[in-house]
Amino acid sequence: MRIFSCETHINQALDMFVAEQKTFPLLEKLKREEKLSTICTYCDVAAVYVVENEE
Question: How many CB atoms lie within 10 A of CB 33?
Answer without folding.
Answer: 8
